[in-house]
Design a protein that fits this description.
Number of domains: 1
Distance between the termini: 59 Å
Radius of gyration: 26 Å
């Protein structure tokens, strides 16, 4: 439990991604020499992405910790989660490492997604800015043009950020880590102990009359889970997608006003 608690504490510190590098927007953007608007837009999306990913990553790890101890044992819950993502026969020691693998790849995914905000925003600012408008000193861009630009930009940025999360495929990364662990653990298992266990089970079977009812005691546990159940990672990804969409949409009016104000200040200076 101490290991997982440390992992949760570490995630709280590292999921909030710090620092960013200034990348110049394309020269064909009419305001390429004025970075106030570009920085306002980038900060808008980076702040929301950072807040949502860091918050719900921490929530996921805390929920895994809570659920694993709710019934007094860690293995059944982690085994259930492993089964739900397609690893029904993972080594028990690897199963216990599931939260560590989840935490590691949450951190890597969050860093990757955050790093993509800047190029996504820059590319669409240059593409979608209404260059056909003739802006004169002292006359800000018409409000409807700013609002249309922000709406189009938000749709494009939202789509590509969510696509970046899907393309990372954190579930596949966790499964790969678990499989690698399983291969290593299986190779180092005591083969003699395994043989003794197998002989003991066969001996017990020989003492019991053949019947489907008694035979069930020696059948492997079912590998399929009820269809209504979802892996914790799937629920996390669905929640993150919903929260990002809502976060991006909720403050668009304030972003529009901010851009309008930047334009006023630019052409009045």
């Amino acid at each position: 439990m101490m290991q997982l608690s440390f992992l949760v504490l570490l995630s709280t510190l590292v999921f909030s991604v710090l620092g960013r590098q200034l990348v110049f927007v394309e020269e064909n953007w009419p305001l390429a020499t004025e970075f106030a608007i570009r920085d306002d837009i980038q900060s808008y999306y980076e702040n929301i992405v950072d807040e949502v990913l860091s918050t719900y990553s921490e929530v996921l790890l805390l929920e895994m910790q809570y659920n694993s101890y709710r019934h007094g044992k860690r293995t059944p819950y982690f085994q259930e989660q492993a089964t739900l993502i397609g690893l029904s026969h993972a080594n028990e020691k690897c199963v216990l490492k599931l939260p560590a693998y989840v935490g590691q790849h949450l951190y890597e995914m969050n860093n990757h997604v955050f790093s993509q905000v800047e190029p996504i925003v820059d590319g669409f600012i240059a593409t979608l800015w209404p260059t056909h408008i003739d802006i004169k000193p002292g006359e800000p861009l018409p409000e409807n043009e700013v609002a249309s630009f922000v709406h189009s930009l938000n749709e494009a940025v939202t789509f590509h950020i969510l696509k970046t999360i899907r393309d990372y495929d954190i579930t596949a990364h966790v499964m790969h880590a678990m499989k690698q662990c399983d291969v290593i653990k299986s190779a180092t298992d005591d083969s003699h102990s395994s043989c003794r266990h197998s002989r003991w089970i066969n001996y017990l079977k020989s003492l019991i009359p053949s019947s489907s009812r008694l035979g069930a005691y020696f059948s492997p546990p079912p590998t399929s889970m009820p269809s209504s159940q979802k892996p914790a990672l799937t629920t996390y990804l669905e929640t993150v997608a919903t929260e990002l969409r809502q976060g991006f949409d909720n403050e668009l009016e304030s972003l529009t006003d901010k851009i309008q104000q930047d334009l006023i200040e630019e052409y009045e200076s």
